[in-house]
Amino acid sequence: MVNNGQTFVLSILEPVEGKFTEKKSTFYSYLLRCDSQKQAIEKVREIRKQYPDATHVCWAFRIVEDDLQESWSDAGEPKGSAGLQILNVLKSRNLANVLCVVVRYFGGVKLGIPGLIQAYKTATVIVIEKAKIVKLQRMLHYQIECYYEELSGYLEKLRKFSCIVKNIEYTEKAKIDFLASSPLNDVLQKVTLKAKEWVVV
């Protein structure tokens, strides 16, 4: 995921949903883009509220913040039969910054552990195959505040470093918001790091 000091991941462009039935149990699956663990946990809570009477709400995520974080939950299914299977599919497809949630409504027929493993894998594959896979690069969101007579010089430097200018605000001074693929604190004056963002490349 790290190439020449820059961080890239394969992820999804938009949320996708899927549904299938196995021996009268119905599985609803959701594949969502999440860029933080906090965001992923909040999405799980939202889906639980959406399905308050579901038998199980199982999930897994892979998220790159400072490093790769992975987590999963079987949500009452036999250990390793649900959330871990979702995670393994995400890993096999080399996806990151994604959360997959699979909601199960029990239909009265037990699937057995092998059947559960296959069902949760299938539910995950269904949404991945519907998703548009994209390459993301983690960029640094900087801001420069400068005098107007300095503006053209800074813009020329940003072009030189292949930066992406997001916005220029014209107040008493000019404020330039831009994205860079590598740290610029040592090569540009008056620069302030605002955040880290993932950008489709």
Automatic annotation (TrEMBL):
Superkingdom of source: Bacteria
GO BP field: regulation of translational initiation
Coiled coil spans: none
Ranges of residues in domain Impact N-terminal: 23-124
Classification via PROSITE patterns: UPF0029
InterPro entries in the record: Impact, Impact_N, Impact_N_sf, Ribosomal_Su5_D2-typ_SF, UPF0029_Impact_CS
Any single Gene Ontology cellular-component annotation: cytoplasm
Family of the protein in this entry: Belongs to the IMPACT family.
PANTHER family: IMPACT FAMILY MEMBER YIGZ, IMPACT-RELATED
Descriptive protein name: Uncharacterized protein family UPF0029, Impact, N-terminal protein
